[in-house]
Amino acid sequence: MKKVIVFGAGLSATYLIHYLEQNASALEIELHVVDLNEDLLNEKCSSDKTMKHVQSIKNVEFVQDLVKGAALVVSLLPASLHLQIAQICLKTGVHLATASYLSEEMKALNLQVEEENLIFLNECGLDPGIDHMSAMKLLNEIRAEGGKILEFESFTGGLVAPDCEDNPWRYKFTWNPRNVVLAAQGGAVRFIHNGNYKYIPYHRVFRRTEIVEIEGYGKFEGYANRDSLKYRETYGLEDVQTMYRGTFRRPGFSRAWNCFVMLGATDDSYEMEQSEIMSYRDFINSFLPYHPSDSVELKLRQYLNIFQDDVDLWEKLEYFDIFSHKKIGLKNASPAQILQKILQEKWSLSDDDRDMIVMWHKVVYELKGEKKCKESSLVTEGKDRSETAMARTVGTPLGIACKLILQGKIDQRGCILPITEDFYQPILAELESWDINFKEKELSI
Amino acid sequence: MKKVIVFGAGLSATYLIHYLEQNASALEIELHVVDLNEDLLNEKCSSDKTMKHVQSIKNVEFVQDLVKGAALVVSLLPASLHLQIAQICLKTGVHLATASYLSEEMKALNLQVEEENLIFLNECGLDPGIDHMSAMKLLNEIRAEGGKILEFESFTGGLVAPDCEDNPWRYKFTWNPRNVVLAAQGGAVRFIHNGNYKYIPYHRVFRRTEIVEIEGYGKFEGYANRDSLKYRETYGLEDVQTMYRGTFRRPGFSRAWNCFVMLGATDDSYEMEQSEIMSYRDFINSFLPYHPSDSVELKLRQYLNIFQDDVDLWEKLEYFDIFSHKKIGLKNASPAQILQKILQEKWSLSDDDRDMIVMWHKVVYELKGEKKCKESSLVTEGKDRSETAMARTVGTPLGIACKLILQGKIDQRGCILPITEDFYQPILAELESWDINFKEKELSI
Q1: How far is it, in rounded angstroms, from Cα B278 to Cα A26?
Q2: Could you tell me if A153 lies within 8 Å of chain B, comparing CB atoms?
Q3: What's the predicted TM-score (pTM) here?
Q4: What ipTM does this complex have?
Q5: Domains along chain B?
């Protein structure tokens, strides 16, 4: 029996643990799951054979003892804790897999990992993860035909299923709300468009969107991710003329969201005075010029240039009761923390809500002197509030990758991403049985 | 003879050294000036008796030997180097004076400085410096009458003299250009207006200005400083309903400057790709959406909503040749560095140019049940490009403060600001002979 250890039984662990339990006997593994929260462990582990450990990873001795002799470790802990696990894996000679971004610190271990003949797999969830795999499949197919890639665009969105879009934003939080509030912050957006490097400051990102239609699901709106150029070399697109990666929302979302950005309500860099006794209305007013008699509503319209007949936008803002006298009740909170609280009241999934993942790639290429265009898209919906499409699309690819590693089907060593055929072919193929299907289509240009 | 040591012979040292040399025999001082640059030392020191030291303050032994036994040290070095000097002063029991902001590190020495019976005077230049002194004089006069302060506003601007306002911005760099490009960055602006805390994000600061008229000099436009509340306790204004501190420019400046802010051209957080071979036009275009045929001019108008007949604004932008094919020629430069280079070409003082300092305070107060208002304003012009009003208003108050310390007229000890009568009365009185005069006037309300 090979020992496999999963650290963390949170949101993204649901499907991963389920997958490993299903495949446990075929793979001859003894599964161990470690989390501080006993209830989570009991909820997520359904097999009697799975060993549950209520433990903190701060208990280094426990972690070392457990990892020693294991065949594979999976870390679903917060990304900042991966390195500690990685170092123990390196010392004890155990493969490691995560769904998180490959950090600089992790990258720095690459040579050592190679020397120890180990696999440290990163970015093998949804985004990052399935985005890499489906993009590389599409790009490599075109290259195999002899095509030269000219443009590459890619968007992903974690949204709600169409029949659950029961608010004016057609959006709810399906993952970490804080990431949504802070989206696009922390530096200018960079991308390349027709050979020109382009930069967008934060306060303009949500006004530079692109509309994309996906058959059967209508229109989506994409805003740019921070660094679209990050994977240029990874994808072998050094000479590409356009490279743009972004996030999907429903049309109209970004323009309304930009109202919060323009106010400064998404700022996480300072604490507001008296935030505890402030009302929602006070919160909005604190970003508006003082006036002895004008209402907050009027000042907001005037400040942000929102016309009386711009009903769609106004309805979105009003939906959060931002003009009400409800108390915020958060001590020493930043604008972003307050906004998150206001949004969570309305944007939380109800018991009947189901989420939806949408991913879309577009490639323009040249084949035998002719310019061509291909799209690849994925739409998949969640089952309910706990068996979400997000958890499935994050956990399942990682589970399949674990299987491939345990079966010895991966020859690469070092700190790697799932961008090669040995990963993406079997993973994308098996994902189809999990209702994760890409549709490719050729477009006229 | 008392030894007085000045570290740094840069811009703000001109008048300080001059003042100390003039008063050297009356004060019985032996003046030492230390700078790395021999030419600067020769240029700034005009008395034979002044001892010039071409030395780096990194030479700790030299600094310690020189400071030992001195009566007073003045640091005009970059603010980050004050602490090193301060620690040597503390160890050797010597008073210290600077024109820089009182840093947290300096503040932390307060108890030790008090215990050693020393004065470490900070913020005794123009802004900070004269602003504190003139504000405290105005506020304390009102308090002495029995008035209760309700509102306090204060603006300062380093500008050019009216007859040198020969460009559409009516502005040139008269001090550190980098600070102008980065103005208002680094966190939201905070102030209080009629009892309401107000916050403005960076991209809105230059659109929330106030117009102020100063007799004989016309109108000025003020935008808010980062933290208007910083001196609330210092000034004894804990209960004030409105407190707002800002920077003066000529009307129309801020709206045009905001175009650069909206583009993202003032961002100093990343390096632009290929900045060396980029033209001014490419620089502007990199912030605008791609279009196969529209001109950069048209895209800029459309992006920033600049109407064809908004001639004043457009003239300001065109003034910098931003649509030209001139090369930038800066390697790995941030947008802010590139913008600074573009601006410096046009906004540098010519030989005949003279600068101008404008300061203005407004206080609303209640006296015997009646609401009243007082303004205090200063306008002073420079003599030429080297004897600037900026250098005079920074160096002279510090020089006078040195005299007061050397004469033993200051009883306070510790890390202090010149906000008490023992400083501001004699300093403001003597500044009048340096053409630094405040005019107070009562306004009807």
Answers
A1: 60
A2: no
A3: 0.91
A4: 0.86
A5: 2-122 (3.40.50.720), 130-251+353-389+439-443 (3.30.360.10), 257-347 (1.10.1870)
